Amino acid sequence: MTTVPPPPPKPSRPLPGKLPVGKPVADALDVVLDFGDTPLKDIGDKILVYAPPGWGKTTLPAYAERPMILKGPNENGYDTLLKYGNVPNVPSRDIQTWPELRAVTQKLAVVQHDRKWLGLDSLTVIEMLCRQHVCDTYFGGDWGESKGAFGSWGKGEDKVEAEWCLWLNDLERLTAKGMSIMPLCHSEVKTVKNPEGADYDSYQIALRPKTRAATERWANAILFGRYVTAVDVDSKSANKNTAEQKGKGVGGRVRIMRCENRDSATAKNQMKFPETIDIPNDPSQAFAAIAKYLK
To answer: Could you give the CA distance from residue 256 to residue 173 in angstroms, rounded to a whole number?
Structure first.
């Protein structure tokens, strides 16, 4: 007697080339086209400000509407300004660890409060918290390049990027509730690799490449604070190309914000800011110069 083998089990997922076909939806075309106008959402803004030391970054969120400030370790700029009466006394908190920052951010997203603006001072220091947490938690505190260490094959940098993006998602929960965020960051001059020509120097946000890229994608606007520089070029350099000229700086007291991206400095503008914003020397009026363009 011949035994007939059992039929092969059905595959748990469609075979290649065999896509499942669902039941037709009635009036499918109408469903696709029936979007209607997009309702306006009451979401907060995400405005990153970066500038050289002493430019006046910290005064901006301090004078915002109903602000609060989270400060990284040893970021005492706001405390010094408050001591000498240069900023109003607003709610603030010193953050010492990355888990503490995550917990505070997440708590702000679920509790009821009347704060409208959150200042983060500064991303450069907060990034250091993230990196230390990743090294201690996932690599046993080993910053080296041996197997299992932070520097091995870029694994540490990848993990920092992942942790950073989780925190940016926490901040998204705040903006979904209508709270606006103003991260502050230091500036630095970096050489940009130019695939279409010669490399050049540019003002950049002082973050590591992967966290900087993630933050630039996240922000609605990136504003670069700088002084207007006036240079007195001597007669020997006057006939040379601009890049070869040398002179003496004679300006540097007028403050502006650059809102449009240029080769010389990173910026971003999804909020219809003008190309540049003049920032008054009166610190109490600095945020108002930005706020008049907000909705």
So the answer is: 31
Asked whether residue 17 is domain-assigned, the answer is: no
- Each residue of 112-146: pLDDT tens digit? 999 999 999 999 999 999 999 999 999 999 999 99
Is residue 6, in this structure, part of any structural domain at all? Answer: no
CATH code for the domain of 259: 3.40.50.300
Site of tokens 């704060």? 115
Question: Token digits for 228?
Answer: 């207007």
Name the residue range of residue 159's domain.
Answer: 42-235+248-291
The C-alpha atoms of residue 69 and residue 63 are separated, in whole angstroms, by 11
What span, in angstroms and rounded, lies between the C-alpha atoms of 46 and 49?
10
CA neighbours closer than 13 Å in the CB half-sphere of residue 212: 16
Whether residue 243 lies inside any domain: the answer is: no
pTM listed for this prediction: 0.81
DSSP string, 132-151: HHHHHHHSTT--SSSTTSTT
> DSSP per residue over 39-85, as a string?
PPP----BEEEEE-TTSSTTHHHHTSSSEEEEE-TT--HHHHHHHTT
Per DSSP, the three-state class of 292 is: coil
CA distance 53 to 56: 8
Residue 243 to residue 168: CA distance in whole angstroms: 39
Residue 262 is given by DSSP the state B
Domain count, the chain: 1
The 10s digit of each residue's pLDDT in 245-267 is 454 544 557 899 999 998 889 99
Q: Smallest Cα–Cα separation from 130: which of 171, 108, 99?
A: 99
Residue 169 falls within a domain, yes or no?
yes
- Give the angle 131-133-136 at the CA atoms, nearest 5°: 105
In whole angstroms, give the CA distance from residue 52 to residue 255: 11
